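Dear colleague,

Thank you for sharing your sequence with our group. We've completed the structure prediction you requested, and as agreed, I am returning the results in plain text so they can be pasted directly into your records. Please verify that the sequence below matches your submission; if there's any discrepancy, let me know and we will rerun it promptly.
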Amino acid sequence: MEQPTSEPLQIRMPVSVRGLALTFVSVVTAIWVLYVGRSLFVPILIGLGVSSVLGPWVDWLERHRVPRAIGAALLVVTVLGVLGLIGYRVAGQAAVVAEELPRAAREVRELLVKTTSQRSGTMAQLQEAADELTESQEPARRGVTPVRIVQPPMRIGEYLVSGSLGVAGAIGQALLVVFLVYFVLASGDLYKRKFVKMTGPSLSDKKITVQIIDEIGMTISRYLRTLALVCSLVGTATWLAFLALGVPNAALWGVTAGVANTIPYFGPTMVASSAALAAYLHFDTLTMAVTVGGTSLLITALEGFLLTPTLMSRMASMNPVAMFIGILCWGWLWGFWGMLLAVPLLMVLKVIADRVEDLAPVGELLGD
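Please find the predicted structure tokens below.
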């Protein structure tokens, strides 16, 4: 007697082909707009992030009878002064490193040539035999003029013009960020009231909108303040450790480590590998290279496993897989700035998804 075959259980999900197609087109269009408009979106997001950090300080000055416009101007000028002072102190060491780059590149090239030249004799003989065989099979052609492709010489004028345009664009975007930060700080909660008014007459919708805006501002502000503190500690620890190890330009490496720590996973890895290479070129020993690179990784590991979880325990937590994929996606869209802004953008998306019923699956995917 034949036993009836058991059918596997299936989940029936209603799928609308039209809705699925519209969703796909909308996602592709949004990605294209973000990629094309990266030169506009990146300064705006940076300005909004800096404004969320400086906003509580402007509110404090306003409570102490300092006009909001004047308080915003004082904070912007103070931040610019601190950044300029740090840049001035590090500029000398950066110039020294820039002068040493040709020597470092030459030593690395010589090391690679030396390693390549030590191939096994068998491989070299096989290559020579293959070259001789190829030459013997090619018939000699008479009366044929060989053709050489000559690359056009580099035009210094075009290079300088393109470089000047790049510097001018960077300065323009920096000014855009500065003015945006000032205007957002000076306006206060103007746009918050406008967003609440745009939600409609429903009191519940207004309440939810206020909660979303407040939670986004609080989360981003707390994250950026914590990130600034952590990066400062990492930069200081790297500077002191490299100074004790005798690494040249330790202050520059400290600033670089602090800035690179804003990019999870990738930033510390790049700093550690670069510091190991620089130590190998300076000390000419593999032991010092491993020591310097391992010290850099140890500092970031202690920060990642002990300090950051303690300071960020109250913020909206995300699982590391979603964070890593988000960093890859935003880095693909906007390069370095996308990797820098990936975590705050994911936090904003999670806050919104947790409050909007239709986006609940997105919040579940991002959540820890």
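Summary note from our side: Residues 239 and 251 are 5 Å apart (CA to CA).

Kind regards,
the structure core
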